[in-house]
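Example 3.2
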Amino acid sequence: MKKSKKNHTWNEKGGRAAVTSFLQRLTEEAVEIDRLILLSLHRGRMPRSAEADRREFEFEQKRQVKQRLTYLKKKKLVREKKAQGRLLVELTDKGKKELLQRTMCERPKLPGDQVCLVAYDVPVTSSVGRDGFRYFLRSAGFIRVQKSLWQSDRDVQQDVKRFIKKVGIEDWVVVFLAKRQ
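Structure, written as tokens:
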């Protein structure tokens, strides 16, 4: 039987969660790369055998962090910057949106027959913003009910409100928590 090479895509089991947790570590502030590696080292289990096993484990963890960092930079979700002689990593705006969409899809379902409804009426002059908002809702797991009415069975009301405020379209969007009859 021929041995297959390890597939290093992030769609395999656990990869999506690893990338999400990596993005979550960068939410509030830029993080020094060495600290980011240390955070990832202690997330896994340290082997309880010889010093060589520990070093091998640490090397593998560093390799995985660098691999994830390369992936995130390639996708333009993070950027590196130098400050006071240190190399820092921070989320880009695209990275913040990606993190929001990923966490929204993982939120718990609403109890009973409740749904989160989003209704909007963005002016025609802002069609780019309207299309972008539609894309955001779709990628966050919402389902289109009518032309400008979307629903989700997940508890994402606060996340959507935060996004609406951040983008500056709160005058045209309303978020409801409703119960189906």
